[in-house]
């Protein structure tokens, strides 16, 4: 006995799910279109020791001269661009650092930024 697809009660549901998935993906495979910021496929690590904080970010396809790194002592802002995507991310640091101590290197798509920790703290008088 041959099944008649017109009588399948789930056919409309599956078509609607497929349409919504196509709409959500906008017909792209995830590598085309406007991509900005650090997405889930961008790897960023923050490592800390007693003396330093190190931020390591994967920035594939970016030229060294297209990378900008800024630090205010509590956050690092990394901005970079390539032909395929743009990166613009603020990374919160696990503790205060000396922004003037920052040293950065970029090799084979991996950015490594190192800062010295500051032991500065301020007492706050309670009134």
From TrEMBL:
<protein>
    <submittedName>
        <fullName>Hsp20/alpha crystallin family protein</fullName>
    </submittedName>
</protein>
<comment type="similarity">
    <text>Belongs to the small heat shock protein (HSP20) family.</text>
</comment>
<feature type="domain" description="SHSP">
    <location>
        <begin position="35"/>
        <end position="127"/>
    </location>
</feature>
<dbReference type="InterPro" id="IPR008978">
    <property type="entry name" value="HSP20-like_chaperone"/>
</dbReference>
<dbReference type="InterPro" id="IPR031107">
    <property type="entry name" value="Small_HSP"/>
</dbReference>
<dbReference type="InterPro" id="IPR002068">
    <property type="entry name" value="A-crystallin/Hsp20_dom"/>
</dbReference>
<dbReference type="Pfam" id="PF00011">
    <property type="entry name" value="HSP20"/>
</dbReference>
